[in-house]
Amino acid sequence: MARLQMDKLGLETRVVAQEVYDLAVEHFRILGVRLPTFAQLADPSTIPAEVAKALARVAPDDADALNLFRVHWYNGADGTRVEIPDHLVLPPALTGVEVRLVVVLADRFPMIHAHKVLATYGCLAPRLVTGQFDPGHHRAIWPSTGNYCRGGVAVSKILGCRGVAVLPEGMSRERFTWLERWVGEAEDIIRTPGTESNVKEIYDRCAELDREPDNVIFNQFSEFGNHLAHYFCTGPAMERVLEAQLGERPQLRLRGFVSATGSAGTLAAGEYLKAKYHSLVVAVEALECPTLLYNGFGEHNIQGIGDKHVPLIHNVMNTDIVTAISDRSTDALMVLFNSEAGRRHLIDRRQVPAEVVADLGRLGLSSICNILAAIKVAKRLGLGGDDVLMTVATDGAELYGSEREKILARDFALGFDDREAAATYDRHLLAVEDDHLFELSTQERERIFNLGYFTWVEQQGVSLADFAARREQSFWTGLHPLLAQWDEMIDEFNQRAGNR
Length: 500
Description:
Blueprint: H1 18-31, H2 38-42, H3 49-55, E1 87-90, H4 92-95, E2 100-105, H5 116-129, E3 139-143, H6 147-158, E4 162-168, H7 173-182, E5 189-192, H8 199-210, E6 215-217, H9 224-248, E7 253-260, H10 267-277, E8 280-286, H11 291-294, E9 321-325, H12 327-337, H13 340-349, H14 354-360, H15 365-381, E10 387-393, H16 401-411, H17 418-430, E11 437-439, H18 442-459, H19 464-469, H20 473-479, H21 481-496
Parallel strand pairs: 2-10, 3-4, 3-6, 4-5, 7-8, 7-10, 8-9
Antiparallel strand pairs: 1-2, 9-11
Helix pairs in contact: 5-6, 5-9, 6-7, 9-10, 12-15, 12-16, 12-17, 13-17
């Protein structure tokens, strides 16, 4: 098959290669696979009854294509659909601030227990229905620092195609254990040098893979399907949670949405909320590698948030606050939340409800990072009990058992007892300050925007015109009609495959 000349931005709304499109349709016809529309993932109550009935017979972690219809925020802990996305409201006894801090749980997503699986579908579905990916022939390459590549491998497998994970060799052991169970062949796990802070090395390996004609690179950092899926699916899910909060206390006011940068896809949910509630968009990074804050470099271990570049799909000019969290704090709090001494301290000394403490033990490193960043914002803005900050728990603690072992050996070699629990809480949670936080002026936004030039124009070959167009908000709002157009193409694709 001839090499596809693909627009790397993923913005097509027409079939660009009819032969590839026809092959994909036939592949799905044979497998009997039906694709969900983005509208159905935004509001799963619109999923057809026959699909919902069939889905009830499938476990959320099964390698079954029906689980595409669970790639949304409305899954309960048992995989059944809920009306309001599962979430936590963290009490002031824990956070030390009066603000209503709402944490929406992404570990309810199927197969990978992280919301990155939504981003992978947001990147893959448009390629399928525009004739840019033949699942019976091409290999899907998923560059990531952990969860996105797992989502890509999962979606690839259930769609009957070959998915390849590209991630740093220093990521948690649990990520690789999961991948080993899901990939088709051992060589489909590609380990790049370094850890979370080595995204450039991932790009370099993908550039090599891109020279092979059967490989298609799905770069979450530059595919706008990632941004749009979160804007139109994650954004309304956050709003549904907010509406539930307002139902309890109508005087509440949403002040901001907080998320680690990662690929910047999730930040699009903050933009959705900002457009409706005039709230703030807060981007978070690691203090050990403060790229957005200080043009800095370094290495960190808050796995899943990336660094050393500004993603192409980050709408920097619509971001209001940038802050940073130290991985020493996220490391220490993961130990606190998952130890008997820590649980005793929180319940007995801090009077945190036991059910909240149990939920804290489920949080991954970047989830803890988001919570700490929200506390910083609350302190800087002086927020009170009628103010709401929202964030997401991006993945769960089950991915970090090996990391906790490392942290304990490094920082708590003498054991984690009641004294250490009290000191850890005081130092890394109660004493959070509003330092390393910029409320962005136009000049600061321009500085951060310009940083992206070096990655995308000089290194990755994005045209200067495409790069610069993103400076204007009309570019981003101009993307919004794409999702409805893709949904029409998904419907037509399903119909052609006989799976409507």
